[in-house]
């Protein structure tokens, strides 16, 4: 499949590499060119603009940090993108942004599929992402060969692309809530003289049996927040987008206010570039540890 891939950061680079290794023809653009250059040795064509990347592409994949980056790229590549081609947005963006993009593409005779992913860079490299897709069913099926290369699973959640973003933001909200609860529980155990690592082992065997608790809990117990798989300031962005979606849908999310304050406390400490599991450390600091 002839693809354009926009964004070769911590997530995008291994995803594009997997597509190349699977035999797809991939043209890559990244605002910072040197970050995309390693893909050339895997067979990628590297171009100097998003508009150049989409020439003759059946689909363009965006994997970028936020709404502004995705919309900037889309403004560049929408005019040259062929009628009937597909924009597959795999970034974590707002519901409002997804709705705008879907409308813009429809007006040009193009298709829009939202397909955000659950998984960190190590999962992207191992093709173990979980993909949540929404959009026209026929176009999702056309993209299935791409999704099969990138992930271990695909959940199709409906015909409205923005619904995939609701699912993704809600999932990230749950992770943030888990980080906060881990931080509070660890603070209690530590201040009482217990060992946080042993506590995690006990509860994850007795109660949860969760990779999320094992991986994030292990990072928190060991204060291992670098290198960042997902930076804390991006987690704050996702929390804000979840709260924005909740407000639009008239859904109270009181825990969101607590999480917002925890994120702000971490950002105020200059920890925005640490892994977002560092959020859990704020509870320990407030406990005097």
What does this structure look like?
The chain is of the alpha/beta class. 53% of the residues lie in helices and 13% in strands. It contains 13 helices and nine strands. The strands form two sheets. A six-stranded parallel sheet has the order 3-2-1-4-5-6, sandwiched between helices. Helix 4 (67-77) links the parallel strand 4 (59-62) and strand 5. Helix 5 (95-107) runs antiparallel to helix 8 and helix 9 packs antiparallel against helix 10. The longest helix has 30 residues, at 162-191.
What key phrases describe this protein's structure?
single chain; 289 residues; alpha/beta; six-stranded parallel beta sheet; globular
Main beta-sheet annotation: 6 strands, parallel
> What is the ordering of alpha helices and beta strands?
EHEHEHEHEHEEHEHEHHHHHH
Structural shape: globular
Distance between the termini: 54 Å
Q: Strand share of the residues? A: 5-15%
Mean pLDDT: 97
The number of E-state strands comes to 9
């Amino acid at each position: 499949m002839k693809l354009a891939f926009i964004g070769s950061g911590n997530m995008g680079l291994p995803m594009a590499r997997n597509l190349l290794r699977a035999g797809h023809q991939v043209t890559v653009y990244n605002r910072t060119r040197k970050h995309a250059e390693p893909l050339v040795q895997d067979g990628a064509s590297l171009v100097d603009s998003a508009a150049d990347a989409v020439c003759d592409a059946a689909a363009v994949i965006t994997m970028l940090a936020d709404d502004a980056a995705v919309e900037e790229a889309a403004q560049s590549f929408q005019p040259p993108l062929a009628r009937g081609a597909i924009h597959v947005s795999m970034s974590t963006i707002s519901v409002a942004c997804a709705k705008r993009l879907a409308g813009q593409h429809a007006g040009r005779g193009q298709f829009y599929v939202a397909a955000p992913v659950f998984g960190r860079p190590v999962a992207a490299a191992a093709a173990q992402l979980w993909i949540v897709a929404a959009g026209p069913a026929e176009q999702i099926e056309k993209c299935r060969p791409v999704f099969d290369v990138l992930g271990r699973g695909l959940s199709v959640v409906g015909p409205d692309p923005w619904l995939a973003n609701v699912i993704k933001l809600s999932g990230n909200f749950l992770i943030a809530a888990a980080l906060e609860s881990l931080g509070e529980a660890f603070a209690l155990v530590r201040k009482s003289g217990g060992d946080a690592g042993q506590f995690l082992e006990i509860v994850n065997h007795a109660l949860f049996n969760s990779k999320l608790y094992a991986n994030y809990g292990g990072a928190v117990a060991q204060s291992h927040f670098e290198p960042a798989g997902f930076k804390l300031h991006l987690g704050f962005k996702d929390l804000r987008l979840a709260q924005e979606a909740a407000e639009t849908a008239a859904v109270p999310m009181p825990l969101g206010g607590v999480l917002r304050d925890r994120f702000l406390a971490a950002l105020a400490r200059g920890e925005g570039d640490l892994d977002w599991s560092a959020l859990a450390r704020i509870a320990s600091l407030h406990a005097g540890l």
